[in-house]
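Hi everyone, sorry if this is the wrong subforum. Our group has a chain we'd like a structural model of before ordering constructs, and none of us has done structure prediction before. Sequence below.
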Amino acid sequence: MQNQFKRATRLILEIKDVASRIPQHVSEGILNVSILRESIKIEIPSNMLIRKDSAYIVIGGLTGLGWEVTKLLAARGAKIVISLSRRFPSEVENRRIENIKRIRSTYLWHKKVDMAKKEDLDCVFARLLRNLGITKIRGIFHGAGVLRDTPVKRLTTEMFDVPLIPKVLGTWNLHRVTENVDLDYFVMHSSIVSLLGNRAQSNYAAGNAFMDAFAHYRRSIGKAAQVINWGLLSVGMGADQNIQAINAMNGFYALSKHDIGNAMNCALITNKVQFAVADLNTSLLGRKFEKHLESSHIQLHDGHADLVNALPEHMENKDQSLQSWVDFVKLCAASILSVDQSEIKDTSILLDFGLDSQKAIELINYLFQSSQIRLAVVYLMTGKNTVTDIAGYFLSKLTKEDATCDDDFISESPSSLELHYFDLYESDSNNPHFTITLDFTASWELNSAEKWKTSLLNLILINPELRTIFQKTEPGQKRADKRKLVLDIEDVCFDFFKVSSNDELQKVFKEVSKFDPHVDIPIKVMFWNSPTCGALRLILNHCCIDNGSV
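Answer:
Right subforum, don't worry. Here is the predicted structure as tokens:
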């Protein structure tokens, strides 16, 4: 499809070139093309991006960014999406595959293969081509990636190769096995690290830089190729809230799933060979790079003191307790930052001693190992909180003096009523007041489990409340350390149980009706059919659904 648009562009330019050589005195009867410019852009219409009769291959298509691409392709009407990875799908991933088929009418295949082994890749592609028959492969989306973050001074050859192999060898092998395939897309997912750098990710940056250069190489030989340099994403490796918080302090903000989808559409429509997508605070980044240059003399430190037994003892006097925690924080920070403890004052800000994101993680882990209190990352990385402030955070957690009430704290936090039902769940998960049960009978014409499952998935699709779970957060981030999260329909794990009789329905109901609101959506269904009618039982979790909603 892109080749057709390229040919159209070349044709228009040829017309302009011919017209420019026509003498002025005979131009009266000639089509006027003087308004054309060589910079004219012909973009693929959004509704023509994905062919509905074709197949598309996504490397790592069941997790992270690959899964977002798979969902986009299915939503655009791809006939078949093929995921390739080094492992078999999990139970959750198999449910997602089923969701794609029911909701999007797209077939999702998965094949296990190591991208670094050309012979294995050849065999998989040969089988795919046989199974696809007349269906053509029209796109490759390559997002394989592995991290092995290590400062350059500590890197070994083996460490350097770990992120390099899927990026370099995987890309080259995909290029080789698709040499004779007429592709609309050959999209490689690179990272903004290859453009901006990261002192702990030189190996990862090198692998992504290869992808960047390879996209230009493929274009130079007339083949489809694009590379997208992604910034921090809210999926995959960047889904961890600690990682997001640390990066935000450094000027990198996580792109939402919505942002990722929009960026993918934009990249495919414009067809630029290289496309960078990131949410950055450039002024903060500039200051960060300057600080890195100033602190480049800091030596790496390989060992830390044994801090486990240094935890402050509880004291009745609040001031004495606070000072004990101040001394404890100093001790931990001095070990991590390789400075003398006497250099760190009560009013010191740890960023001034060379604290970066990697050392912040180490310090958080050491403090947690000793105290079993998880320090919020923002307290370390904002540059506003002193050692005394950090100590006060620990003391407030012990004395339960945390009265956070700002807008960010309230946003996406559970309501008071939802927390009430959480209390019921945590005190007794079998509490009958935690669930609502509704029974229906279905006539013979509707007596089909498959029809009901598809219909209920569509019901869940149009009702976000039925796709809501409560994600655990870092202490103090949200009310009761829980955040309401609405899942995409493809990510929903919908429990639909078929039983053989009414007696069996009653027998297994008690076990089926158990919910974990952190992972389970608030609806489960039991179905029993007979030659004349069917019985449908909806079990609803009170955390998200009240009687009025029903």
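For your construct planning: The longest strand covers residues 435-442. The domain at 410-541 is CATH 3.30.559.10 (Chloramphenicol Acetyltransferase).
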